[in-house]
Amino acid sequence: MKIEFKRFFVPAVRVLERAMALIVLACVVVAMIKGGITLAGMDWSAKETFYELIYRILLLVIGLELVRMLITHSLGAVLELLAFVIARKMLKPDLTATDIILSVLAFVILLAGRKHLMSTTCYDEGELGAGPEPRGNEGPASSPPAPGRS
């Protein structure tokens, strides 16, 4: 009975996660359009408008990272989502010194955890940045020269 429950439960949860990811993605698109309309009507000579722009962009990025986390189930996606949440919190103009210190400490802990606690198998392909290419595709540097060239 336990095996049957797990066989039904896991795919059902995956479908629900993907449905939630689609809903969040649709909300991000709507927020982007509505936010763009709102920002277009704001006074761009005020520095508060720029803060509002950055705040809204980070909120959209958090939404996109949430979608990515729901679909990929990557620990790297979770850490990046938390990093964007901390970054968004740090950009508020009314932070106290304690808030700044705690945010910086949380960010450093996230970076240290990503570097020292995660193995390379936790990352998706291409997520580590520019690294060595996969074997069998050494690129143009190791390919023989074209005929007529030396």
Protein described:
The protein is mostly helical and 150 residues long. It has one domain. Helix content is 67%, strand content 0%. Helix 1 (2-40) runs antiparallel to helix 2, helix 2 (47-72) packs antiparallel against helix 3 and helix 3 (75-90) packs antiparallel against helix 4 (97-116). The protein is flat, with a radius of gyration of 22 Å.
Produce a short descriptive summary.
It is built from four helices and no strands.
Key words describing this protein structure:
single chain; mainly alpha; 150 residues
Secondary structure blueprint with pairings:
Elements: H1 2-40, H2 47-72, H3 75-90, H4 97-116
Helix pairs in contact: 1-2, 2-3, 3-4
Low-confidence stretches: 132-143
Largest sheet: none
* Number of separate domains: 1
Mean pLDDT: 80
Tally of strands: 0
What is the radius of gyration? Answer: 22 Å
Query: Would you tell me the structural class of the helices and strands?
Result: mainly alpha
Helix content: 55-70%
Q: Give the amount of beta strand, in percent.
A: under 5%
Helix-strand pattern, N to C?
HHHH
Distance between the termini: 69 Å
Number of helices: 4
Categorize the overall geometry. flat
